[in-house]
Write a structure and sequence with these properties.
Elements (H helix, E strand, L loop, with lengths): L9 H7 L2 E9 L4 H12 L5 E9 L4 H7 L5 E3 L8 H14 L3 E5 L1 H13 L4 E6 L7 H10 L5 E4 L2 H11 L6 E3 L15 H8 L6 E6 L8 H9 L4 E6 L5 H10 L6 E5 L4 H6 L3 E4 L8 H8 L4 E4 L4 H4 L6 E4 L4 H12 L2 H18 L2 H18 L3
Parallel strand pairs: 1-2, 1-4, 2-3, 4-5, 5-6, 6-7, 8-9, 8-11, 9-10, 11-12, 12-13
Helix pairs in contact: 4-5, 5-6, 9-14, 12-15
Length: 384
């Protein structure tokens, strides 16, 4: 058959072209959703997808700069107050002009306008994300439920989050898909020794160090960690992170007589090195969708003590990779930490098991593969 007059079909042309992919997120300061988006973009198949990131505000923060360093455009809509209509008008015009094939939204304040404006501008595929549970008000649940028909799929960061949005928000089960967070475990393979990390970071050499990496926000309940520290002798607590609660937490530390045993070190770019200095990692949140910080600590070979909330029990296997405790219970937290402090062999065993679990089930490669598979499934379903 002669091929001189051959004309490729539309489907064949689309298969060869890069798919325009827009990510819409509330803001780009450091947080769990932002880290997940950055990791996805870092490992995304750029021969297949052409990504752009839009944020409602905070387009000049650290995560935004890291995304731009990947040669991915970041567009800041300049929202200075929630629900400013001019920002949504700019978003509408941008989507209408660019017409991406896929719009993937992250966080509540991006999910709702993304769904509505995505459909108004004729975007073929709209995907939303659910990363928390129990933190939204009832009117937000209603708004979420009302706009859900406008989205093709809802990506949930854990099975418990998926179960929650089905039962409490009213999202149909068939619309949800669970894609857990993933991290680059290789970044934790060649850490300094504990002693070297402590020397380099100026931390006590001979004391027991319990630490956490978290935004200093009320939901993290770091006051519980401080109260537990006060119940233990010669235990120092290292708190890596920034946020609105720092001043009140420092004041609580003073009242508890912990000024010389609690180290507030602020936001740090070299988190693996800080983890290398610790004996135990603790997370005391009231709610978690799926904690990136726990995954990183497990990849660093640390035993975990964490509250049994949200997606945490899907990551931390109680008695195997760490110990789970009830939220807001300083005594239970103290008992769990003390148990690990008294048993170095158990700490090492849990640390090894945690590292293996992250490598097998929570790698960034797995997260990216699952996300790209979702994109491809929806593209095929729409004939694109």
């Amino acid at each position: 058959m002669s091929t001189s007059n051959y004309q490729p079909t539309t489907a064949q042309i689309n298969a060869q072209a890069k798919i325009p992919l827009f990510h819409l997120i509330t803001e780009l300061d450091i947080g769990g959703a932002q880290k997940a988006l950055l990791r996805l973009l870092t490992h995304l198949d750029r021969d297949r997808f052409s990504p752009t990131v839009i944020c409602l505000y905070n387009g000049d923060k650290a995560v935004a700069q890291e995304i731009r360093a990947l040669s991915i455009p970041v567009i800041d809509l300049g929202m200075t107050a929630k629900w400013r209509l001019d920002a949504f008008w700019r978003l509408y015009r941008l989507l209408r002009r660019e017409r991406p094939t896929i719009l993937h939204t992250w966080m509540f304040h991006a999910n709702i306008p993304g769904r509505v404006l995505g459909r108004l501008t004729g975007i073929p595929i709209v995907i939303s994300s659910e990363r928390t549970m129990g933190q939204e008000s009832r009117w937000r649940y209603r708004l979420n439920r009302l706009t859900d028909p406008l989205t093709d799929r809802v990506v949930c960061v854990s099975q418990l989050v998926a179960d929650f949005v089905v039962a409490e928000v009213g999202i149909p089960r068939h619309k949800t898909i669970v894609i857990p967070n993933g991290i680059d475990a290789q970044a934790f393979e060649h850490l300094p020794t504990k002693q070297k990390a402590r020397v380099d970071l100026g931390l006590p050499l001979d004391s027991t160090l319990v630490g956490t990496v978290a935004r200093l926000d009320p939901v993290k309940r770091l006051d519980v960690l401080l109260q537990a520290t006060a119940l233990m002798d010669d235990v120092h607590t290292v708190i890596v992170g920034a946020g609105p609660e720092r001043e009140s937490l420092e004041a609580l530390s003073e009242r508890l007589g912990l000024a010389d045993r609690v180290h507030f070190v602020g936001q740090q770019s070299n988190v693996p090195e800080w983890l290398a200095a610790l004996d135990i990692f603790a997370l005391t949140s009231d709610w978690e969708g799926m904690s990136n910080a726990i995954l990183e600590a497990m990849a660093a070979g640390l035993p975990i003590v964490a509250t049994a909330v949200g997606g945490t029990p899907e990551v931390v296997v109680d008695g195997v990779t760490g110990l789970l405790v009830p939220p807001r219970d300083p005594d239970a937290l103290t008992q769990a930490i003390t148990r690990l402090l008294r048993d170095p062999d158990l700490r090492r065993k849990m640390g090894r098991a945690g590292r293996e679990r992250v490598q097998q089930h929570f790698s960034v490669e797995r997260m990216v593969q699952q996300t790209q598979s979702l994109y491809e499934q929806l593209l095929a379903k729409k004939g694109l």
